[in-house]
């Protein structure tokens, strides 16, 4: 009996030692991934705190889980980073936020299929080129809530599979070189709060009436998107809208009257279309911050 108890204690001690060794090795590995990233982006000035003499959890732009010490956030906005986005960033197994907005990163859209904990991806305002992967909605994790690639030089069509990212709250695709049509499949992301498709090179087409199902949408920006036809009457269901921008298109017909009654609506930009009709009585007395509906055929 005593021998069995001693054996169990030895086994437990061995497991503890193995756990400590594995955890330390994993932490060292995470620091090595970040240093490799620093070398790839070749910016020692903005990442000067990234040194082996200190814990990577204290490095500028890095956040870690307080319990495990594993990296959860990389936030490096406006650091003049250059180079492409390597797939080995997914070796940070707990990475939830990857935000490199407003840098000089180039190359194609990165392979992030192994970033299984990713929730917020912001690659906006860099110089990414090429097309989004056709299966992008199937390879990114289900838990992703922000997908921002606005302000790049991405081409081709917006993949229909993007509608499979059903947990998204922010979908930012503006200021690229996308062509083709706006995929109606985006309407499957019913919890969207922000959608931007402005300033692309879409073929002339209608804005999908199915977008009227975005009952949580607060921000809609589809300026200069070659829109034709009428503003769908279904948009009267977008009751949470705060910012509504369809300016500089070729929209016709009238402005759905119900839009003016949205209690949170503050910004309306329908400038330079071919809309007609007049203002509904409900607009009087409302405290809009800015409305521009000039250069239409309104009376």
TrEMBL record:
Residues 30-65 form the Leucine-rich repeat-containing N-terminal plant-type domain. This is Leucine-rich repeat-containing N-terminal plant-type domain-containing protein. Belongs to the polygalacturonase-inhibiting protein family. Its main location: other. It is found in: Cell envelope. Residues 1-25 form the signal peptide. Gene3D superfamilies: Ribonuclease Inhibitor. Keywords: Glycoprotein, Leucine-rich repeat, Repeat, Signal. The lineage of its organism: Eukaryota, Viridiplantae, Streptophyta, Embryophyta, Tracheophyta.
